[in-house]
TrEMBL record:
PANTHER family: 3-OXOACYL-[ACYL-CARRIER-PROTEIN] REDUCTASE [NADH], SHORT-CHAIN DEHYDROGENASES/REDUCTASES FAMILY MEMBER. It comes from the Bacteria. Belongs to the short-chain dehydrogenases/reductases (SDR) family. GO terms for molecular function: oxidoreductase activity, acting on the CH-OH group of donors, NAD or NADP as acceptor. PROSITE patterns: ADH_SHORT. This is 3-oxoacyl-ACP reductase. Residues 206-385 form the Ketoreductase domain. It comes from Nocardioides antri. SUPFAM superfamilies: NAD(P)-binding Rossmann-fold domains. InterPro entries: KR_dom, NAD(P)-bd_dom_sf, Sc_DH/Rdtase_CS, SDR_fam.
Length: 448
């Protein structure tokens, strides 16, 4: 599966047409390969606030080189601005003063992170100024170009030490297709900051369940969690058994074949994880289906009942499985539950009332559990935009082209982009990252 347009624009004739016709010209995004440095370049740290002083030290632990002043004609790979010190709207000018002189001299695929205080946790003029950061970062994400990304990380007071895994993700090529996002740290639930001994194997000794693991995004999630040190338990329907087994053998993992929407699926999964692995640390609800049809044409007598199938697999199954694993104490302390929503669940889509309801429901599941979970267990979700897989290969050509170009990066994402975001949530050092829904959509123009 590939983006043919992107291949075409890098050919000599394609380059000529792009120039003369003003066609979209997607930048080839840098992606992380095992063994690469996390950030290939220097990150400039600026601003004044609760984190400014500790940031260089936090970056150093991650192996990221940083500077606090810019030398003459020095180029940067990333910029981190601590905006937690901005107490009213007149102080927002500090953003322009810091960023404007730097933006023309950034390296390719640059990374920008603005750090703020969650507006809902402060009052008056400070709340106004902190809320303003969202419009700033989302707009800069659309302006930055060259495959760059821009994010806003709201860090609650007292949660400063829990920011490092998030910086590692957002400053590295692991977040290639994530832009214009707002992440909250230390806002939901209560947990201690967890440190990991080996930054390249944060999941060493952990067990990760991945549903729908035999192909597409699920396969990439399984590979990425394995790369990070996890023992992966792949799950898929019996029809996908041979692909699933081959992959799990390659990853030295374990497998389970069943339909997650089956009545006894939650009990069978809980039993398997308890008996064979003594519990589970990471649960990724990736399996999902589409059965598109406009609502006016959707009836219970449909072939297979499109409504019931999609809601059953995409929403009711993750809800029931999560509930069973929690009730039976199968999820270990400090574990993470990760949902796979969709941009369709945020913006809506023609022909997808069933799918969008199921995916918005996955966001609801995150909201409903984030404050309730005990033992440092977290729940978060990704909302992918247009990701090039067999699911999207079935989309008609014209719709597919629009889907791929209508984002700040003018291209579709890859399964690895979703997988890296999930690996960041799963990282035990992300113990204060709870209740988030991050879109992996190249900052799609649709939806918030
Ligand atoms: P895919 O169809 O390639 O893979 C889905 C996997 O889930 C398959 O292996 C399938 O056998 C498995 N599965 C389906 N129903 C199951 C069931 N009842 N029990 C167990 N396993 C089941 O899809 P994908 O593109 O890799 O999508 C993965 C997830 O990402 C889905 O939840 C999808 O809704 C979501 N998503 C994808 C995109 C995209 O652009 N591809 C965008 C947004 C969200």
């Amino acid at each position: 599966m590939s983006d043919k347009y992107q291949g075409f624009v890098s050919s000599p004739i394609g380059k000529l047409l792009v120039k003369n016709l003003g066609l979209p010209n997607p930048t080839k995004l840098e992606r992380y390969e095992a063994g690469d440095p996390l950030v290939d370049g220097t990150v400039l740290v600026g601003g004044t606030g609760r984190l400014a002083e500790s940031l260089p030290g936090l970056l150093d632990v991650l192996g990221i080189a940083s500077a606090t002043t810019a030398g003459e004609s020095q180029r940067f790979k990333g910029l981190v601005f601590d905006a937690t010190g901005l107490k009213d709207s007149t102080e927002l000018v500090a953003l322009r003063d810091f960023f404007t002189p730097l933006l023309r001299s950034l390296e390719d695929c640059p990374r920008v992170v603005v750090i703020g205080t969650p507006p809902e946790l402060v009052k008056g003029p400070e709340r106004v100024a902190q809320r303003a950061l969202e419009g700033f970062t989302r707009s800069l994400g659309k302006e930055i170009g060259k495959g760059g990304t821009v994010q806003l990380v709201y860090v609650a007071e007292g949660a400063e030490a829990g920011v490092s895994s998030t910086l590692g993700f957002l400053l590295s090529p692991k977040s290639a297709y994530v832009s214009g996002q707002v992440v909250r740290i230390g806002v939901h639930g209560k947990a201690e900051v967890t440190e990991v001994a080996d930054q390249t194997q944060p999941l060493a000794g952990k067990v990760a369940l991945v549903t729908g693991a035999s192909r597409g995004i699920g396969e990439s999630i399984a590979r990425t969690l394995h790369r990070d040190g996890a023992k992966v338990v792949g799950l898929d329907v019996p029809q996908a058994a041979s692909e699933l087994q081959a992959l799990m053998k390659e990853l030295d993992g374990d497998w389970l074949t069943l339909d997650i929407s089956g009545d006894d699926a939650p009990q069978r999964i809980a039993h398997h994880l308890t008996e064979k692995h003594g519990g589970v640390d990471v649960v990724v609800h990736n399996a999902g289906i589409t059965r598109d049809r406009k609502l006016a044409n959707m009836s219970p007598n449909d072939k297979g009942d499109r409504w019931a199938q999609v809601l059953g697999v995409n929403l009711t199954a993750p809800e029931r499985i999560t509930r069973e694993l929690l009730d039976q104490g199968v999820i270990n302390a400090g574990g993470s539950i990760i949902g796979v929503a969709s941009i369709a669940g945020i913006a809506g889509n023609v022909g997808q009332t069933n799918y969008a309801a199921s995916k918005a429901g996955v966001i609801g599941l995150v909201d409903s559990l984030a404050d309730e979970l005990a033992d440092g267990i977290t729940i978060n979700a990704v909302a992918p935009g247009f990701i090039i897989t067999q699911m999207t290969a079935a989309v008609p050509f014209a719709t597919r082209e629009v889907g791929q170009r209508l984002n700040a990066m003018a291209q579709g994402g890859l399964p690895i982009d979703v997988a890296e975001t999930i690996a960041w949530y799963a990282n035990p050092a992300s113990s204060l990252v709870n209740g988030n829904v991050v879109r992996v959509c190249g900052q799609m123009m649709l939806g918030a």
